[in-house]
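User: Could you go from structure to sequence for me? I need the amino acid at each position, not a summary. Structure tokens:
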């Protein structure tokens, strides 16, 4: 996916980064030792073959001059913190961090190295798999996601703070920040921004049911899952994590918008979650609205050269508003 947030670097800078991380003896010579991994939407990532033949991944944060959405500030620091939490407090397979550099001496952004995972991306191969195998992997994902959510925080909201005492405060602030991002760049979301604000406010009391601040990945789609031989071997891309309501996880999105986001049943079986209660459905509808607002608004911040994502997401925003009782006359 092409995006102006991708902070590509020259071979000379990449070699300097490799030397700092692994030493001069691992700096590759010749050509063909680096290739860009093009599946991501935000950071640039390179697959790199070191001089001894070992393969690693280098991930570089966006350039500081490129404006990002409010919730994306410090995304790489969030990812590094989340990886540390998951390695120390769960058995969920995540990449090790070989080296992280926040000095900005070699390039204008943070970066880190991790091992290359020799496995298939579930989001890419899912439709080629037999249904039973695909469902089994989604059940594994549900179980892994539940383990991730078992990590507790001391506040709601961003990992590093400042936090909120209640989930209602945290989520309404998160949503307001997204709306302000859209207004600042004049993004046409198809609705008056204050109408969206009113829809959130009308259902915000449903958020008060959430009293435990759980680690939420939020971006744990199949495309962030690496699989091999019928098993999940690694979960990648942890830069959107926060402390909040586990129902915000991607796997639950289809409970309210299955036509757009797929059948959630295998994920929910693996997670061990039964049918949603009325209040849970309301909360999940608010989370669907939050998701599709970002999907519409981020297209401007990413500098997309085509309208494919916007054209898909805009009708989904209408669907999310309808779930909250707002339809076009």
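Assistant: Here is the amino acid at each position, in order:
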């Amino acid at each position: 996916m092409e995006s102006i947030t991708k902070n590509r670097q020259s071979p000379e800078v990449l070699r300097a980064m490799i030397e700092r991380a692994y030493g001069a003896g691992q700096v590759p010579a010749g050509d063909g030792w680096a290739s860009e991994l093009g599946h991501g939407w935000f950071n640039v990532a390179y697959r790199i073959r070191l001089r001894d033949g070992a393969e690693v991944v280098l991930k570089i944060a966006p350039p500081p001059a490129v404006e990002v959405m409010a919730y994306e500030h410090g995304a790489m620091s969030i990812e590094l913190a989340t990886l540390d939490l998951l390695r120390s407090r769960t058995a969920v397979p995540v990449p090790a961090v070989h080296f992280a550099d926040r000095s900005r001496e070699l390039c204008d952004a943070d970066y880190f190295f991790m091992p290359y995972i020799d496995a298939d991306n579930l989001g890419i191969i899912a439709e080629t798999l037999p249904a039973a195998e695909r469902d089994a992997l989604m059940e594994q994902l549900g179980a892994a996601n539940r383990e991730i959510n078992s990590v507790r925080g001391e506040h709601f909201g961003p990992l590093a703070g400042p936090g909120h005492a209640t989930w209602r405060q945290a989520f309404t602030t998160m949503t307001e920040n997204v709306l302000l991002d859209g207004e600042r760049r004049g993004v046409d979301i198809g609705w008056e921004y204050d109408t969206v604000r009113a829809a959130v406010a009308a259902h915000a009391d449903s958020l008060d049911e959430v009293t435990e601040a759980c680690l939420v990945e939020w971006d744990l789609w199949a495309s962030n899952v690496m699989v091999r031989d019928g098993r999940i071997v690694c979960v990648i891309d942890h830069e959107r994590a926060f402390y909040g309501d586990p129902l915000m996880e991607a796997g639950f999105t289809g409970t309210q918008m299955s036509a757009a986001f797929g059948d959630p049943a295998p994920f929910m079986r693996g997670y061990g979650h039964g049918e949603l209660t009325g209040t849970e459905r309301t909360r999940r509808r608010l989370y669907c609205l939050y998701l599709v607002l970002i999907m519409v608004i981020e297209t401007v911040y990413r500098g997309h050269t085509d309208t494919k994502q916007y054209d898909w997401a805009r009708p989904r925003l209408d669907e999310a508003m309808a779930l909250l009782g707002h339809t076009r006359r």
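One structural detail worth keeping in mind: DSSP finds ten helices and ten strands in the chain.
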